[in-house]
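Posting this for the archive.
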Amino acid sequence: MGEDIRLAAVVALAQGMAAAHGSREAWRAAAAGACRALGGSFAALSVWERELGRLRVLVNVGDRAAGEEEFPENEAYPVHQFPEITEFLHERWAGGGEPNAWVETAEGPAAGGRPGYVHQRVAALRRRGRGSCVVAPIVLNGRAWGELYVARPAGAPVFGREDADFATVLAAVVAAGIAQAERLEEARRLAFTDALTGLANRRAVDARLDEAVDRHKRDGVVVSLVVCDLNGLKRVNDTRGHAVGDRLLERFGSVLSLCGAMLPGALAARLGGDEFCLLAVGPSADDVVSAADELCRRAGELELGEGVACGVASTADPIGPVRSARRLFRLADAAQYRAKAERARRPVVAGRGGPDDPVVRLADAAPSTQSAERRTFRGRRP
């Protein structure tokens, strides 16, 4: 392969990883780009899980053999089975430099390859109908991170020393792409996470609720929202200090997360200040009300604070058509406001409360009182 062609392959690999949205896409782009660059038929990217002493496969691309999934959940190999990789996994490259890639073949070690006969690699090549492979260690932030593996089928030209040297270069490009993907992933996480409690934030709720309401309108999926105010936070802040108030918020966040776990896939979030919510997509309205009831009970048992005011709105209850995220938010918020006004120890549920129910007062019109307007304003998108 000419130098210009290899340079173009390196650029294509880097561009593919840079264009990826999320880690999984970056892994796939890395493996696919390396496979094309080296003229392989199959490639895999694996990460070293130090605490478990194993290499776990993140992605398989190309001509996969039986049992090889694109994104496997449980494909992992004990590192001690591969003495040639164990050697580099415990090394550091903080001062620069990269470990060299090497070649294995279905007939044994390739000419100029690493010393020693690696039975596991050879057996795997034969079992999967492959003739040779090149293995390139990946180093990230000066530490061994994992490996890039590219194979060719039986009968194809065997990888040579030149291919191994090129694979070493590709591994360095992959490492840079992984580092960038991890930084972007962390930035996305921070953008949608409340810094104090670790729960989702209002931005995450807005995005998820919009998607959920679209699914409800399209497929009829049940969407439910629990909105709650943590009572007594101001008193705690004023009498015991904001550090204690923050501890109350963190403890309630843990309770909210625990109760949200009762609803598969529910999103637990802090909207800001003393306001929190649970968003459930799929579970029945009764299951959501049960989780909200448990939330009220547990909040009342917290050492700090004065319990929680909790309102629920679900598309499965008689609340009228829900055509927007804003409407569901306003109904849950109004139910919560009623719970707070009545000092209710259990959740108030829109559509289940008789003539004074929030759904009757709100309907599709704007709130008629200043207090209702103030309470429902936070349901509007910023």
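The longest helix spans residues 161-191. The radius of gyration is 28 Å.
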